[in-house]
Amino acid sequence: MLPSHLPHLSLPADSSLSLMAAFSEQSNISRSVKSFNLGLFSYCPVSRVLPLTVNASISRRRQLLYSPTLNPQAQCLTGNPIDDCWRCDPNWAANRQRLADCAIGFGQAALGGKGGRFYVVTDSSDRDTVNPIPGTLRHAVIQDEPLWIIFQSSMLIKLKHELIFNSYKTIDGRGANVHITGNGCITLQYISNVIIHNVHVYNCLPSGNTNIRSTPTHVGHRGQSDGDGISIFSSRNIWIDHCALSHCTDGLVDAIMGSTAITISNSYFTHHDEVMLLGHNDNHLPDSGMQVTIAFNHFGEGLVQRMPRCRRGYIHVVNNDFTEWKMYAIGGSASPTINSQGNRYSAPIDPNAKEVTKRVDTNEGEWSDWNWRTDGDIMVNGAFFVPSGQGLSMQYAKASSIDPKSAAIIDQLTMNAGVLGGPRDNSVSISYGGGATTGATSNGGGGSTGGGDGDGDFLGMIFGSGAAPTQSSPTTIIFLSLLIILILYITTNHDGLLSLPSLLL
Fold first, then answer.
1. Identified catalytic residue from 306, 311, 312, 344
2. Spatial separation of the C-alpha atoms in residues 119 and 141, rounded to whole Å
3. Quick check: is 424 catalytic?
4. Co-location of 292 and 179 in the same domain
């Protein structure tokens, strides 16, 4: 039996299914629950048990999460090579780590935690940055070994300070609704092989001047952070996919100081000024070798500029949907090579903001030989792209990472951009709180985030508290409900004067 006091469980990738089946058979499940097939977003292709009384809002979200199983063709063969790689398999959750084989572009070699153990985050708190509590996300990301990090339930993780990663980590938010916010947010510094998939990142604030642990054996003093959503600093082989990013103090995603081999895909960007910075400054020569793929993203409501803003390097902007900017979409300085292919650019109403491109603080005599091209892009509402350079094939080869699809099917390619299984952006209010995980889940497992909506709680049945669930029988629930209705009826309509026997006659 799994010790009931453990807040999390790490499993070898090749043994997770057999262990799950064993624990499921040993669980003491009350007779008042019924089987419920989780479908596409279950952790493994076995039945899960749920109470008969299921909150309507939870049911609706689960319908959104699991509906692709009922009609797999609706989510498959869209032309989006990442999604087509894994979403067509109704049993994808039995082989979560196959996601690492679905990357495209310059970041396609990012292994993340492939081949490593599963780490289940059971605690949404972030109280101690020097000695993280086992079961928290902070404790998971600093480990030295490769880890595939998943979540026991939906949770809001409010960070105390920067969340500093170690190499070979995957954050896999599929099957739960995971929000990361607070101070510092995500920092990838001097590391490699990280995958961040299917999480919300927003409202990130500057923080620092404190000690933070970055590995099991190293604690360092951190100065003031910028308040980026995801900061990539001297790192490589990074893949960010199906995330929703908004409302941060500095950039939503910044990649600087020689970072390279990066793909940012299928994500939903909204409500922000300076969206994405690629390159530290005009004079930082190591950024000359930077290669970044930006593919199948939706740049949406409330964006102003930098989608991206590039310094040096080779940037492939391919099959994205740009539906709003207030200043410009793509900017740059210090002669970056920008290869724009198969995108849709929809200009704002402002007649002074129709241009997609902006050469920052540079005169035309200097930028006229920069290699910026538009190839197969669709321009909407007066949008226009100003190309430059001689179109040198060698330069564009270094800025080409995948074959573009036709911009005519951009709606199809980006229809699932953002977090899967619910609202794909961060414009909705968050109904569940952060802090320490407390209480029992609806299926008898411990460690559910307080106030959580329950999505993904099936993990709690296996990895949570070993205590037997306590469930009232359906007959008892019905009787108590009728009794309450009768009491309310007597009180409101008969001033409490009718006796119960006379009412039943």
1. 306
2. 10
3. no
4. no
